[in-house]
Amino acid sequence: MAGEVIVDALPYIDHGYDDVGVRESALAMVEEECRRYRPTKNYLDHLPLPATSPFETPLMVNEFERIQNRLPMETLSMKRYELPPPPSGKLSEVSAWQEAIENSMAQLEHQWVRSLNLELMLDYGTEAWKSYLEVFTAMQAKAQLQLQQLKKDIQDVNWQRKQAQTQAGERLRSLEAHWVLLVSKNYEIETECVELEKLVHAARQKLQSITPLPSANDTAPTPEHMNGFDKDDLADSKDSSSSNSNSNSDQQDDAEQDAATEDRGNEEDKPDSEARDEASNEST
Fold this sequence. Notes:
Layout: H1 22-36, H2 58-69, H3 94-210, H4 223-226, H5 231-283
């Protein structure tokens, strides 16, 4: 995948994060990435708009329209708490006075409801508050349990990550040591090969220096007579054949010497046997 970033950091086994210049280099990398990344205003155009209409109330719709039109927010109306008399031009109208009377009656009813709520609060407010505290305490305990479970899950994830990185670190160290060993062996083998090539080259030069030059009367074997063997192979075969012939001749000489010694032994034993035969005849 193009542009894929592979994170190969192992913070549990890597070292050197507190060294001099590490933080500066990391910040420089972040700045360089920020320079390359050019965010646009419409980077979410490929995503569909959220469907918020099912959750909007008429009050929210009106407020959104006001915000969209950039209109100021209406101030809190205190008109219902006021008891204004009829206007000066309508002092003689009965409807104006009737409206003022209804307004005063609404204000009185509101004040009576407030006093009733205060009396109910004095009678039942303590128990209601205790019930609310019990519910709140239960919610807090439940949230505390969820928080502990989340912390435990985080700790388990961190422990698994540490264990995985530790195992990976041991594996990496083992592979690195094996790689160093192989590289060292390859270097030693290459060094030995170079030395052997030097020895072979020196031996060939020495052999060429002590080998007599061929005369004009000598006929060099043709490739057809050599049967696909080079000069070095032929020389080795000649040396081996000469050594085999010499060993065969030495074996024949040893066999002839053994036969001669046996004949001499038989000749020396023969007079003694004849003397014994004559002595036995005289005794008879």
